[in-house]
Design goal:
The chain is mainly α. The chain has one domain (about 5-90, about 100-170). About 65% of the residues lie in helices and about 0% in strands. It contains 6 helices and no strands.
């Protein structure tokens, strides 16, 4: 096997291991759900949640703030509605190995729940959630591209290796950017 293939295989295996480790960490941290404080409607919780958003870069409080802005409703009311949805939909058992929750069904249930709680049309909630998710995915993809470009510039990766990582992320093989 050529040296380039071995390096590419090694980097890909490392990236997969990193992605799997991040997934296990996300599942482990999803087991505990913090209670919101009465003094602040924003949170820096970085655990994964049943609402289809990961809490990176501001957590659920940032999602609530973004959603409140897009829908023109009070942030505290959105935070309360999200928390109520999460509590009502908290998994009772650990996920089966190798299975993923149905994202589409989760999104639809969340939009319906929030629309009822906030007295807003479900289609508006769905559109706002989609816009927020796409913006967050674009941010993650841009951050990944920056890191990969730096690695190529520094000689840590070749452009072909960086392209392979980007493709793996885009196809959902490993985490790290937009899907």
């Amino acid at each position: 096997m050529s040296r380039t293939k071995r390096i590419t295989l090694g980097i890909t295996a490392g990236a997969l291991a990193l992605g799997a480790g991040m997934g296990v960490t996300g599942m482990a941290s999803a087991a505990t759900t913090p209670t919101p404080s009465a003094t602040s409607s924003t949170s820096t919780d970085s655990s994964a949640s049943t609402d289809g958003f990961r809490g990176h870069k501001g957590g659920h409080g940032q999602i609530a703030a973004d959603l409140a802005t897009k829908l023109g409703v009070d942030e505290a009311k959105v935070t309360e509605a999200i928390q109520a949805f999460r509590e009502a939909n908290k998994p009772t058992t650990a996920p089966t190995e190798g299975t993923k929750p149905d994202r589409t069904a989760q999104d639809a249930a969340m939009a319906k729940s929030l629309a009822a709680a906030l007295d807003v049309e479900e289609s508006k909630v769905t559109a706002a959630l989609t816009e927020i998710r796409e913006a967050k995915q674009a941010e993650r993809a841009a951050a990944l591209k920056t890191r990969l470009d730096t690695a190529v510039k520094d000689g840590t990766l070749t452009q072909a290796e960086a392209d392979a990582v980007t493709k793996a992320v885009e196809k959902g093989v490993i985490g790290g950017g937009g899907r």
